[in-house]
Amino acid sequence: MLRGQVAVEFLVLFTIGLFIFILAATFFPAQLREAADAESQADQLLEQIKVRAIVASTSRTDFNTSLFVPPVINGLPIVLSVSSGSDSVARVFQNGRLLASAQLPLIEDVFEENLINQIRIHKNASGVFVTI
Predict the structure, then answer these.
(1) What is the CA radius of gyration of the chain?
(2) Tens of pLDDT along 32-45?
(3) Which end of the chain is more exposed for a tag (fewer CB within 10 A), N or C?
(4) Could you give the number of structural domains in the chain?
(5) What pTM, to 2 d.p., does this model score?
């Protein structure tokens, strides 16, 4: 009888372990897909900013453009950060986690005016400037 009890307990424990594994395998890929989708959207946003910054840097003076920045990606708020100087970089953060970053051409200065859902890139005789 002891052997039969050990076999039944083993089967019960094995079944519980298999159930937990199947649950994890079901939900984990969905979370990975959401994270990859958020990173893809952030990459697309930064690519648009990069293209506009390159156009601004190669154009003549008095170039102005605006770009819509979504306030959320996959239902979670994002933060757009742009640094100026020789190592100009744009970054998108979500919940403190870096989603994407892109190297930009030389940005002379970044002005924070709390624009709602947009970024402005403008060039004058002094250089390229970004307002977020």
Answers:
(1) 25
(2) 788 788 889 999 99
(3) N
(4) 1
(5) 0.74
